[in-house]
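Quiz preparation item.
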């Protein structure tokens, strides 16, 4: 025996070195490999035992999540859950670094697997009691750490990137006296173990602040939006821009042209395994035993990022198969559920989409919906629900090019555009244009479907078209009806009027051609000829000459056309505008008042024709400088406009006039 050991009490045993047999009088025990530990090995440092990742200077925001962490949970266990790259670990490290003064020890364990968790606990035991190093095996060290945690208070463990709640359940059952903070991509399965805190993407201002700390410049807000305000993507993109010496806007261009490659980029020294192109592969690998989950994610990549009707996925499998696939995607934070709709982070979509899978299936599911459309009355009764489906078609169109569109896809996009309402929605313009291009590519310029799709949007929208689309609309009319058909002549006038602000020379050439074709093919006193002349006169650069020509034209139209023809009002409106421009406001007001009088006599005060003429009189009065009369008429007219026209453009004009402040108001 070496050393000295004292023992007291009945049948007590003490040893100062290695011993092989102990006899107490009751029984004997054979000790094969006894190890003597010095007394100081049983002590733990009083304070300062901290193991945390290096703190990042790029932490921003997260006030709500930090407040919830500060408040704690009754169980002492909280879980930060969310999508990979959302910033869970950064948030946990930032919060834990502020708890050093009131917790001991503060210990970080990477716990993606049970083996990593056990190794982290063993490392904690070695840090607490260095004398164990090289003496006790790993499993004994892990057990020693658990025993210590179970017997002491005021410690903090951070278990990072836990894959499965079951992996930490034994630890949580024993270590109940301190605090445990867990980060995990698993959004479900914690209800009996911990309080969950869902970590969202950063808000736009916080995202911009994070990016600008590394790489300020033009396009910061835009690149942050494109990256879905995802912290990992923002940090890597900003670092890459800074190192490459490019602006955020230049990075956006790279992202648009080379999405797959750009999402895999990182700055020198960055973790290539932590790029957004790879960070979700671990989760996808775990879902390989549910192949339908991968298929669904591939489909969702081509649709909108939120508001996706769950029922669109029903044809992909049996109800149980689809439900199970959705459950697993949600459990791993790859999608979120909100009632009967799904959402996917836009960067997840972009990375999955860059792989190319799911495009055709995403289109086929939507085409299947269009094929079995219900009666229009049912669509109108459930317009919001159908527009949610149309939104997926819009997203598909924006994520793809027209080069491979089928006729079914063109019809899908046309249908979706109609649901958004052609008169006002830019989305409708985009979809109708895409449908038109698809029809033209497949069937040529003589296809009536192409003309139908484009004419609907160009006629209904003032702001939605473009010079190129206007020219295409005219070419389609010529292709379908010929150059001299009344429908083509009318379209040529509308196209020319649209082109006037941007291409006056081209517009005037079209207007002159239109008059010549109308006179030659239809005659002098036809409605189409009157309209062609009206458009040509109104476009003239000499207001005095234009006013004289329109006065003659209006008189002739009243003689020839039926009094109910709305072209008479259109000519009146053109003439009034030219009169105001030429400095003849009295004549403009006189003409507008006469138009109101004719309408009152023919239709009465409540008819649409009369209401619109009175509204135009109010704007004419304003243009003539008679603001008080204009406001008085508008206030009288506003309730009538709302009743007859609803909240449309005319009502908006009248409302503005009714609320206009005048100098006399003080």
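Solution:
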């Amino acid at each position: 025996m070496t050393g000295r050991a004292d023992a007291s009490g009945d049948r007590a045993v003490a040893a100062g070195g290695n011993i092989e047999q102990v006899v107490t009088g009751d029984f004997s025990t054979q000790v094969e490999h006894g190890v003597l530990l010095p007394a100081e090995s049983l002590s733990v440092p009083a304070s300062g035992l901290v193991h945390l990742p290096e703190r990042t200077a790029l932490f921003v925001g997260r006030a709500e999540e930090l407040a919830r962490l500060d408040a704690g949970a009754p169980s002492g266990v909280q879980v930060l859950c969310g999508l990979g790259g959302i910033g869970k670990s950064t948030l946990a490290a930032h919060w834990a670094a502020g708890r050093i003064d009131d917790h001991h020890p503060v210990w970080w364990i990477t716990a993606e697997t049970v083996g990593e968790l056990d190794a982290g606990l063993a490392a904690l035991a070695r840090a607490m009691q260095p004398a164990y190093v090289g003496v006790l095996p790993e499993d004994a060290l892990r057990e020693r750490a658990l025993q210590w945690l179970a017997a002491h208070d005021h410690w903090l463990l951070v278990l990072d990137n836990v894959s499965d709640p079951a992996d930490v359940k034994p630890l949580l059952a024993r270590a109940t006296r301190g605090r445990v903070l867990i980060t995990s991509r698993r959004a479900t399965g914690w209800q009996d173990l911990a309080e969950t805190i869902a970590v969202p993407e950063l808000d736009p201002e916080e995202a911009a602040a994070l990016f600008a700390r590394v790489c300020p410049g033009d396009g910061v807000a835009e690149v942050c939006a494109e990256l879905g305000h995802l912290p990992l993507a923002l940090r890597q993109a900003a670092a890459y821009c800074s190192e490459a010496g490019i602006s955020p806007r230049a990075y956006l261009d790279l992202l648009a042209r080379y999405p797959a490659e750009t999402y895999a980029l990182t700055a020198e020294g960055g973790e290539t395994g932590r790029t957004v192109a790879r960070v979700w592969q671990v989760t996808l690998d775990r879902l390989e035993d549910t192949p339908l989950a991968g298929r669904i994610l591939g489909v969702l990549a081509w649709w909108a990022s939120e508001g996706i009707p769950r029922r669109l996925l029903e044809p992909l499998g049996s109800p149980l198969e689809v439900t199970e696939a959705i459950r697993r995607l949600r459990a791993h934070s790859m999608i979120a559920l909100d009632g009967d709709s799904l959402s996917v982070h836009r960067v997840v979509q972009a990375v999955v989409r860059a792989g190319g899978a799911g495009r055709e299936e995403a289109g086929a599911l939507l085409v299947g919906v269009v094929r079995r459309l219900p009666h229009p009355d049912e669509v109108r009764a459930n317009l919001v629900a159908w527009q949610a489906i149309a939104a997926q078609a819009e997203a598909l169109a924006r994520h793809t090019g027209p080069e491979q569109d089928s006729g079914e896809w063109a019809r899908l996009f046309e249908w979706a555009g109609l649901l958004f309402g052609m008169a006002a929605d830019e989305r409708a313009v985009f979809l109708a244009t895409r449908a038109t291009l698809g029809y033209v590519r497949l069937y040529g310029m003589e296809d009536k479907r192409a003309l139908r799709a484009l004419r609907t949007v160009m006629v209904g929208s003032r702001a939605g078209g473009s010079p190129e689309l206007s020219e295409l609309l005219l070419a389609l009319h010529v292709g379908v009806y010929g150059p001299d058909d009344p429908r083509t002549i009318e379209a040529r006038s509308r196209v020319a009027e649209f082109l006037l602000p941007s291409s006056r020379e081209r517009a005037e050439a079209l207007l002159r051609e239109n008059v010549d074709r109308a006179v030659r093919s239809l005659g002098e006193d036809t409605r189409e000829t009157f309209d062609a002349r009206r458009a040509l006169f109104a476009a003239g650069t000499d207001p005095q000459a234009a006013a004289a020509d329109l006065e003659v034209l209006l008189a002739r139209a009243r003689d020839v056309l039926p009094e109910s023809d709305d072209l008479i009002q259109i000519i009146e409106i053109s003439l009034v505008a030219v009169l105001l421009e030429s400095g003849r406001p009295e004549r403009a007001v006189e003409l507008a008042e006469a138009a109101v009088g004719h309408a009152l006599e023919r239709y009465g005060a409540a008819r649409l024709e009369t209401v619109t003429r009175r509204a135009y009189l109010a704007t004419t009065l304003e243009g003539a400088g008679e603001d008080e009369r204009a406001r008085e008429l508008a206030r009288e007219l506003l309730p009538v406009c709302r009743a007859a026209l609803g909240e449309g453009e005319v009502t908006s004009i009248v409302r503005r006039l009714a609320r206009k402040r005048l100098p006399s108001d003080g």
